[in-house]
Amino acid sequence: MRTTLRSAHIFCTVDQVESEIQAAFEFLDAVYKPFGFNYKVGLSTRNPNKWMGDLKVWDKAEASLRAVLEKRMPGQWKENPEDAAFYGPKVSFLAFFA
Questions:
Q1: Dihedral over Cα of 6, 11, 14, 17: its sign
Q2: C-alpha angle with apex 64: 59 to 65, nearest 5 degrees?
Q3: Which of 39, 44, 23, 22 shows the shortest CA–CA distance to 91?
Q4: Which of 8, 30, 27, 19 is nearest to 68 (CA)?
Q5: Are 9 and 3 in contact (CB under 8 A)?
Q6: Reported confidence tier of residue 8, pLDDT bands at 50, 70, 90
Q7: pTM score, two decimals?
Q8: Strand 37-44 to strand 90-97: parallel, antiparallel, or no bridges (unpaired)?
Q9: Torsion-angle region of 21 (φ positive above 0: left; ψ -120 to 50: alpha; else: beta)
Q10: What is the DSSP letter of 14?
Q11: Counting CB atoms within 10 angstroms of each CB, which of 18, 54, 64, 65 has the fewest?
């Protein structure tokens, strides 16, 4: 069985990226785990031809997200190169029944 949660957007400062993604993990664990669901995680990174903003901000945001993902799910997440939104990197959670 596959389920799709449409989407959620978290707009935050670069300094808030780590705590916000940690909070997202805690929320998903609280909602999905009691019902036997698990999830796969992907990190979509900047497309060099389709982005806006400050490259240093992008690099820091992507590095912060990688660090959290590796801490929470070492070696169990995948990178989706050049699949980010034009305004920032994104983390995708695909829920499934374990």
A1: negative
A2: 100
A3: 44
A4: 19
A5: no
A6: confident
A7: 0.86
A8: antiparallel
A9: alpha
A10: G
A11: 54
